[in-house]
Amino acid sequence: MPRLFLSSRTVRSSQSGGRDSDKFVLVRYNANGTLDTGFGTGGIVTSQFNVFGLAHAAALQTDGKIVVGGETGVDFGQSTFARFSLVRYNADGSLDSSFGTNGLVVTTINNDDVSRAYDLTIQPDGKIVAAGAYESAANTDTMVARYDQNGAPDTNFGSAGIVVTRVGAITSVGETISLQSNGKIVVAGTSYNGVAAVGNDFGVLRLNADSSLDTSFGTNGKILTTVRNANDSVRDSLIQPDGKIVVVGFSQSTSAGFPEDFALVRYLGDPVAARRAPYDFDGDNKTDVGIFRASDSSWWYSRSSDNAFRVYSFGASTDIITPGDFTGDGKSDIALFRPASGEWFIQRSEDNSYFSFPFGQAGDIPAPSDYDGDGKTDAAVFRPSTGTWFILNSLGSGTSIVQFGSSEDKPVAADFDGDGKADIAIFRPSDGSWWYLQSTNSQFKVYRFGVSTDKPVQGDYTGDGKADIAIFRESSGEWFFQRSEDNSYFSVPFGQAGDIPAPGDYDGDGKFDTAVFRPLTANWFIQRSTAGILVTTFGASGDRPIPNAFVP
Asked: 60: helix, coil or strand?
């Protein structure tokens, strides 16, 4: 896949009295380092905007378009002022005329002030968030702006799409921007607090998704860090998978010559529950091949860690299997729901002892998942007769009762918004619609995807930390996926009529894999996203694959 390199250069121009005119420059290379001749002219694109243009950062959209952030010069009176600017290019390097004005978006707060975009990122919903600096006659402040996909300011963000704030008493600049999985925005840069003996510091701020300062972070959403009593400067930042925030740059020493050294600071962020593979009975973070045999209530699974198999007799032929990590030890527990009495039975993975409890009633559909994000599976049922969910929170906050759905609906709980908590969700066969209630903000989403005979097989197939809407079409053996990143879709043929879908993360790479169990031959066909196709025989005709437990 070609890779993108971004810079700017100065080109002598006859414009404006012969002064130098800076242009945006993009260069794209092939994976082997050669210029990608399918991009621009010989792999290079140069763009002239207004009086000058300086490119500082780039981000790649899921459709292959490239968004570049920087500054362009605008004449006002007798002077030229830099403006916070974004440019979007098509995948071939041509300007995207559907974005702003002929591909360019210029953001102006006041005509005689200066602003620059130093970094940007693309939200999962396609909106663009950029950070930089706003310089007035009095101060230099951090500027954050959010835009819709067409380049128009997002008027639901800040004031007309813009937030201007300061970390430190005197100046602050937003030099790098990152998105947390829960939608919060982290901006880091260099700040000055007015103490000459200390100099510049690392400044970090966090905004909620609605642009308000996150008061749970630092002091009223801001943190000022002195690395050493000289000038510190930020250059980049990232969010670790566990939610911690890493900011990097340099720090000037107070020793002779004031040498500069690497500086890294890590901050506590919002904790993110570890994402574990489902149906993982041996704790190696890979889904295990396994079956439930109703005729003798036996559970059989092959441990992916050593290919050894285990057999346990647990339950009755009329029980509904509900495997999950109810004890929070990182291993799936054998578990079942007894419809006749509304009881749950759990066999602990730690020592194979068991416990039981009543939760539900006849007619309820079990829908266990981790609804509170503590790493433990919570017992839950959906009651079709009233369209009500009952969730027993393992954190000890009692039972949640939520009205969501109707009598025909099928529960399809999963983490669709990427906050580490399962979202209440249903699939409505009559119109092929998916409805889910986001745990991040209690807002619901609705999508139509599939037909009444399709099997819902939701899961994170793209590896972005969010479950994708997905279906398996039994009549043709096809899989259809709606990407959580941008709601585009793709499909793959994998299986045949009569196969039973059994998706899971069989190679432990953080992505769901398509998989089917063929009852006629007891063969498993698994298309692992990293390790390749696996074909194995395990089980017998009449068995139910354990990874099919929550496919309605």
From this structure: strand
